[in-house]
Amino acid sequence: MTEGLREKLQWRNWLRTASSSNGASVLTRRHIYILPTRFGIGFGTILLAMLIGSINYSLSLGFAMTFLLAGAGNIAMLHTWRNLFQLRLRPLSVKTVYAGQDALFEIGIADTRHRKRFSICASFRDAEKVVHDIPESSEVAFELASPSVARGWLIPGRITIHTEFPLNLFHVWSYASMDLKCLVYPHPSDLNLPIPPSPSEGELGYEAKSVGDEDFNGHRTYQMGDSPKKVDWKASSKEQGLLVKVFEGTSKSTLWIDWFQVPFHDSEQRLSQMTRWIIDAHCARTPYGMKLPGLEIPPDDSDSHFHQCMRTLALWGKNDQ
Amino acid sequence: MTSKPFPNDSNWLLASLFTVMLPHLGHLPFWMWGLMLLVGTWRFHLTKNHASLGIWVILPIAAAALFGIAFSYHGLFGRDSSVALLACMLTLKLLESNNRRDFIILILGCYFLTVSLFLFNQSIFAGIYVLLPLTLLTCTLIGISHPNGQLPPRFQIGLAIKILVQGVPLMLVLFLLFPRISPLWELPTDAYSGMTGLSDSMEPGAISNLSLSDATAFRAEFKGSPPKQNQLYWRGPVLWNFDGRSWKMLNQNVDLSKETLASTGESVRYTVTLEPHNKNWLLTLDMPSQLPKDATASPELQVLSQTPVRSRIRYEAVSNLKYTLSPELNDLERIFALQLPDHENPRSLALAASWKKANLSPEAIVNKTLEMFRTDKFYYTLKPPLLGVDPIDDFLFNTKRGFCEHFSGSFVFLMRASGIPARVVTGYQGGELNPVGNYLIVRQSDAHAWSEVWLKDKGWVRVDPTAAVSPDRVESGMESLSIGSRALPIFERGDHPFLRNLYHHWDAINHNWNQWILGYDDKRQTELFELLTGKRLSWEDFTLGMIICVSMLSIPTYLFLVRKLRQPVDPVLRLYRAFQAKLARKGLPLFDHEGPVDLSERAIAHFPDETGTIISIIQHYNKLRYQSQFDPVSFKIFRRLIRDFK
């Protein structure tokens, strides 16, 4: 409660955000804020000291130099400000992730004023900052990370764009919000539980226990939650990324991944375990179906089927399904 | 902002520091040169090898350097030692500068060290030179504010110069309008060290030393043409007390009677720009009849300012070159004007006694002495031999070689010994006319000493014994003499007219620089704006004017910087637009959405006579716009077709 209140009272939340129209948001003068940086304050203090020194020693050239620096600092303020002025932001793409991973939003930031922009820094709140230059009249893709905690829709909130170029004296920033959301799949369970046989077609069930005895069928890239035991370290050392050994099961018969067959009571744990099994089954190219209370997805082995199952699991029990 | 700067940034900083330190080397102790060289190279290698030093390496060096500064400056805290301390700290900070924050602290320090250069030197060169470190420091700032990669150095320099140039309008407004106020507190005494000029005493060698300096003492502008050389006696300290070796001023508490000036002949009005010399003396021509503002005159008519002259000042005065001073001499003055140390210089005393015994009139004694100087093989030289125990005797009867101080000193001695009240006057004699700026340059090498004797019914009368020995010195100035080792550099001598002319131009520029840039103080500011507005403005007016000007300046600046840049328009497109405009003028309505082919169809329907031209224009247009290879021949035809299209 207090956390929420504090959040609401934060001064930053009272500042205007550039909202999107036609999918893009443009930073106009109403959205750009400016404050001196710590260095800017230090610079001002030094100028003041130089001014007092010039007065005291009657140094005409001291006055001139102080005023020249003041003029340059003043111009730098405008340079910094216009570095952000009239930038256009639009969402490019987003990749689905598993809970716990960083959701990566690709945001296109474009110059609309035929002027090169330098050191444009963008980030979601409290997340890692991405800095790029933007060549004149072109768009640069910023890959902004937002950490995902739970399954469901991740709405990362507004983007902060800031810059201190060229003299580091002023911090100019702006907020932009766009229709950004990312579907977060449940976190795949780390447990290496076998898929239990379905009661009706038990004999056709895929037995994870027999994995070690099956024939080696090649590699696939590491997926979150894969057991380290399955990683082919030798092969991984040569290639880029971790590779996981895949073993062909004996049976190509249909699997049922069933809510009620999961040996947990907690629904999140159940969903997590089901996610694990679906990944395993999908990677093994075994056709599988999924059963949830009051919902059944018929077996298939296509990619779209995989994502349909994942989407269902991600949004299971959420209001905005 | 604690990320690591790029090696380039570090090298920019190194270059900036080098240029900041360079002009200070002259007043830093020698060991600091070594320290800077060591640290600079060290830093360069640290950056190259991506290494950094621990605080335990730096601390002992810092402690040693602090000790070194305390030792070099004898523990005194003042201008010189503060600058040395700042330079030393910045140098050492360089060793442990690993992140952006350190860089920023260093840059701030560098700005301060740069401005402190003006404590030592405010010449045109210094003013121009400072632009170099300022540009480099700005380059460094641009580098560290671009954390996502290194920028091309040329771009950095270009942007830095651009930002500084764009800062100039604001600088000018602030420079002109910022209300100039007097210093806020007393300065350390060593702030004025190194100022040369006349001293309050004269001993053999004092003025000849000054004569070796070609530094400017002051410049004088005359209303009308300047007086003749032999009338240009710039009056400085008047010396009365003789202790056998040196001549000194009277104690200020001595109550002399006020001098009265009866002027004959016309007066000269002139403006003097006096270089700072840390004394109260204002130089005026013999004799001042109208004093500069806020100045007083001593009883012996030396003009004094209220405070020591510690910055270049300007004053206006009026003098009468022909004058008669008060014929009265009170007893106290007579005692001072006849005072001599007992039993010294016996031969001189004996000579004077012989004159006295012969019952010669004071005028005759004066003439006799001058005659002696003229005929008795006396020489005027900058390198007089050293004098013995009785310096006056030694000079008059032995060496006979001396400078103005020898002549005036021994002359006054002989006068006093003969019972004629006399005193020594120091100051400057002559000056060189700069035809470019039409003003007189008076240098330290023009320093001079002459005598005044008191004659009954005539009062104090100037006698210049040097003129008896070397009339050229007084008739045409110092540079006409080729005695000893003259101080004047080659371009100031008469034998190179071209160089001399160049020198005059350069000095005129310097004079204006001093007048308008360095001398732009509260007085000048009020004067200038009184000239422009016709009113005397107060500092409140200046502040208000400054605020208004700055805000008015910011509007065009804003519009200029934020304006929308136009994309370079393709020449083909521009010609096509011209074609469209021509069609529109002929009465064909235009539509934004219409492509060239649709347009041509409508145009042919409207103007069937032009069918051939329109078709070939559109064909060339499509070819030029949409073919990857640019065809110059096609472009020429296209251009001609559109130009000829009526």
Can you describe this structure in just a few lines?
The complex is a heterodimer of chains A (321) and B (646). In chain A, 28% of the residues lie in helices and 31% in strands.
Helix content of chain B: 40-55%
Taking pLDDT < 50 over at least 5 consecutive residues as the criterion, the unreliable ranges of chain A are 201-213
| Largest interface: pair, residues per side | A-B, 51 and 60 residues
Backbone shape of chain A:
elongated
What structural class is derived from the secondary structure elements of chain B?
alpha+beta
Strand content of chain A: 25-35%
The overall pLDDT average of chain B reads 83
Rg over C-alpha atoms of chain B, rounded to the nearest angstrom: 37 Å
Report mean pLDDT of chain A, rounded to a whole number: 82
Helix content of chain A: 25-40%
- Which quaternary structure do these chains form? heterodimer
Tally of domains of chain B: 3
Our measurement of the CA-to-CA distance between the termini of chain A, rounded to an integer number of angstroms, reads: 27 Å
- Describe the largest sheet of chain A: 6 strands, mixed
Number of helices of chain A: 6
Strand content of chain B: 5-15%
Globally, the shape of chain B reads elongated
Number of strands of chain B: 20
| Overall number of structural domains of chain A | 2
Weakly predicted, low-confidence segments of chain B: 482-487
